[in-house]
Design goal:
The protein has 4 helices and no strands. It is mainly alpha-helical and 95 residues long.
Length: 95
């Protein structure tokens, strides 16, 4: 019922951010993206991986495998931020 109300109200241009169910879902999605694609957190994990290797906590094979995966994640995070920023700017300019 709330979803139908939200959709009908949005079609007429009425949106109450605190009560809007779609707005809540968007906030949850944005939070998940920030947590998942935070370049600073990924960089910290890369540094941690390097330290583990230097202190011989992990072997070269594991270091390479983890580093490759973290570098891939960092690239995706940086691309995602650029795309997300572009989308946000479009939305702000449209209002």
């Amino acid at each position: 019922m709330f979803i139908i109300d939200d959709l009908l109200l949005r079609q007429v241009g009425i949106s109450i951010p605190g009560l809007d169910l779609i707005w809540i879902f968007e906030q949850i999605r944005d939070f998940a993206y920030r947590e998942m694609y935070d370049p600073e957190k990924i960089r910290n994990r890369i540094k941690e991986n390097r330290l583990l290797y230097e202190f011989e906590e992990i072997d070269r094979e594991e270091y390479d495998r983890t580093n490759t995966e973290l570098m891939r994640q960092l690239k995706l995070a940086e691309m995602g931020q650029e795309m997300n920023l572009g989308v946000r700017m479009d939305i702000l300019g449209a209002r």
